[in-house]
Amino acid sequence: MSNVIVFANQKGGVGKTTSAVNIGASLAEKDQKVLLIDFDPQGNLSSSVGLFNNEKTIYSALAGQFSINEVIHAIPEFKLDVIPATIDLSAASLELADQEKREYFLKELLDPIKERYDFILIDCPPSLDLLTINGIVASDAIIIPVQCEFFAAQGFLTLLFNTISRIKQRLNPKLHILGVIFTMYDSRTRLAQEVIEMVVEKVGDPSLFFKTVIPRNVKLAEAPSHSQPVTQYASASSGAERYRNLAQEVLERVKK
Predict the structure, then answer these.
(1) What does UniProt give as the signal peptide span (predicted)?
(2) Long-range contacts of 97-100 (CB under 8 A, 24+ apart)
(3) What is the pLDDT along the chain (256 residues), one digit of tens a residue?
(4) CB 177 within 8 A of CB 167
């Protein structure tokens, strides 16, 4: 059975794309069949795995220019399939806005290919626009990366208590939170630990949070500019090891 998981947070720079790429690559290392979908017009996930300026993108599939099968790019060196995005995707929100069932376009596009994969991971833009809503509606579960910083944590709480509950109630009753990842943890500062404690206390359910915390890490920051997951770029780094641990937690949670 395929697990469709969306990575979402309306705040940018929280490690959303980094987490999608590296959890995906780590799952692929564990012999899981993984499809990554770049659903952000910035295209950062695409460039992180070496896909630039493609005409066969998620937008071209939504627009009916290519079939969903034609926009899947195999990347054998990472054992990943990827559907890339370019800035063209920014037009999709406007083009879909007046369409009937506009929140379900991505779901309907993915339904025919879902069973080919163990995991389909969707990287959404840092906003709560129609693209992100499509990503959440298409998914079984959501992973929320949260930077260990006060304002990022506040944004997460808004997403958790307002947006997700509304989408679950109105559009996707099966949606559940697979987990929350704390990212960019700096053990040298007391603030990072205080943010974690504050968020866990306000949410009131420690089981929502992954045990693995992602630290600030030089190799993690460098890997995207080399168009590689950190598990490939610096396999022995602490960043790579944390994401492998996180992927194992993801596997355990989807089996429950």
Answers:
(1) none
(2) 97/130
(3) 799 999 988 666 678 999 999 999 999 999 999 999 999 999 999 999 999 988 999 999 999 999 999 999 999 999 999 999 999 999 888 888 788 889 999 999 999 999 999 999 999 998 888 999 999 999 999 999 988 776 666 666 776 677 888 999 999 999 999 999 999 887 777 888 888 888 888 888 899 999 999 988 899 999 999 999 999 999 999 999 999 999 999 999 998 7
(4) no
User: Strand, helix or coil at 177?
Assistant: strand
Closest to 200 (Cα-Cα) out of 130, 146, 143: 146
Q: Is 28 exposed, middle or buried (0-12, 13-18, 19+ CB in 10 A)?
A: buried
pTM over 0.90: yes
Q: Which amino acid is at 168?
A: K
User: Could you give all domains of the chain from N- to C-terminal order, each with its CATH number?
Assistant: 3-255 (3.40.50.300)
Q: Which tokens sit at 58?
A: 């998620």
- Residue 78 tokens read as 């990472």
How does 104-130 read in b/e, with b if 16+ C-beta sit within 10 Å?
A: bbbbebbeebbeebbbbbbbbbbebeb
- Can you tell me the distance from the alpha carbon of 62 to that of 213, in angstroms, rounded to the nearest whole number? 35
Question: In degrees rounded to 5, what are phi and psi of residue 188?
Answer: -80, -15
